C-alpha cells in the first residue's frame, strides 16, 4: 500500500485522528497537502518534533497536529497524525 510521505517519513494516523479525518471526509493525502501548503499555527510551545499546521478554506480553518515517532509494525520513523480539526476563523 502506497503511503503519503512528508519530509521523507510516512504519515500514519492514530485511531482518534483517523476518526476525526473520517468525520471531516479527509484522508492521508489531504493531510499531506495541508502539511505542505499550510502555515505554522501553534498557539503555544510544542515539544520538539511536533508540527501544528493550519490551512484556511472559506470561513473555516483546518488544523493538523503531527508528531515524529517510531512505528514498530512498519519498522521505521513516521509522522504520527495525532489531531485533525476544523473550526471557524476568528476576526
Describe this structure in words.
The chain is α+β, with helices and mostly antiparallel strands. The chain has two helices and six strands; from the N terminus they run ββααββββ. It has a six-stranded mixed β-sheet with strand order 1-2-6-5-4-3. The termini are far apart. The mean pLDDT is 91.
- Overall shape: it is globular
Largest sheet: 6 strands, mixed
Radius of gyration from CA coordinates? 13 Å
The arrangement of helices and strands along the chain is: EEHHEEEE
Total beta strand runs: 6
Unreliable spans: none
- Please count the helical segments: 2
What portion of residues is helical? Answer: 10-25%
Mean model confidence by pLDDT: 91
Distance between the termini: 42 Å
Strand fraction equals: over 45%
Strand order of the largest sheet: 1-2-6-5-4-3
> Pairing-aware structural class of the strands and helices?
alpha+beta
Give me a quick take on this structure.
With 91 residues, this protein is α+β, with helices and mostly antiparallel strands.
Based on the model shown, name its key terms.
91 residues; 2 helices; globular; 46% strand
Amino acid at each position: 500500500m502506497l503511503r503519503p510521505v512528508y519530509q521523507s517519513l510516512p504519515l500514519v494516523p492514530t485511531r482518534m485522528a483517523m476518526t476525526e479525518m473520517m468525520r471531516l471526509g479527509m484522508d492521508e493525502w489531504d493531510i499531506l497537502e495541508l502539511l505542505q501548503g499550510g502555515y505554522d499555527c501553534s498557539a503555544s510551545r510544542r515539544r520538539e518534533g511536533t508540527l501544528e499546521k493550519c490551512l484556511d478554506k472559506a470561513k473555516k480553518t483546518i488544523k493538523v497536529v503531527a508528531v515524529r515517532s517510531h512505528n514498530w509494525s512498519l519498522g521505521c520513523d513516521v509522522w504520527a497524525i495525532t489531531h485533525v480539526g476544523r473550526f471557524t476563523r476568528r476576526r
